[in-house]
Amino acid sequence: MLEKHQEEFLKSLLSRARVRATASPSRRKSNMPQYDEQRSGAGPDERDPAMLSGLIDRLIINKGWDLQVSTGRLTGQWGLIVGHEVASHVSIDSFNLDPSGQSGTLILKADSSAWATQIRLLMPTISQRLGEEIGHGRISEIKVIGPTAPSWKHGQRSVPGRGPRDTYG
Predict the structure, then answer these.
(1) How many domains does the chain have?
(2) Over its length of 169 residues, how does the chain's per-residue pLDDT go in tens digits?
(3) Residue 71 maps to which CATH number?
(4) Considering the domain boundaries, does residue 157 fall inside one?
(5) pTM, to two decimals
(6) Residue 75: partners with Cβ closer than 8 Å, 6 or more residues away
């Protein structure tokens, strides 16, 4: 039969095989970087791609551009905010920042003096709607200007005339 040396050798081989079977499998050594066994699943993970809109929003806030972006959005969506009929007669002329940089003055230009008066009457509603769109307190003042009256002065010398009668609008 088997000699004592062979029997001991076979027993040691068998015990090694049992230890390997119960132990965790060994990994191959390679030059590839080793990653954790955790794989991305259904839940969010820090390795997941980020939405571009979220990244842009963070950039705007970090750089302090939020008021300028809000006023740009206000200019682009003026017709949706006040209505297309009003927007066809009243446009945004400019937005002047206050020295604090946190708010500003919105200047609206009307086609006629009648539309300028109409906007002044609708000012509480418009300022509330603008506050909802770009944030309350962002617009410190709203000024409405009508059309400019024509000048009757021609040439270098002129005499006082009757003055403006209407805004001709």
Answers:
(1) 1
(2) 567 777 888 888 888 888 887 876 555 556 766 665 666 567 777 777 778 888 888 888 898 888 788 888 888 889 998 899 999 999 999 888 887 777 888 999 999 999 999 999 999 999 999 888 888 888 888 999 988 877 767 788 877 777 666 655 5
(3) 3.30.70
(4) no
(5) 0.58
(6) 92, 95
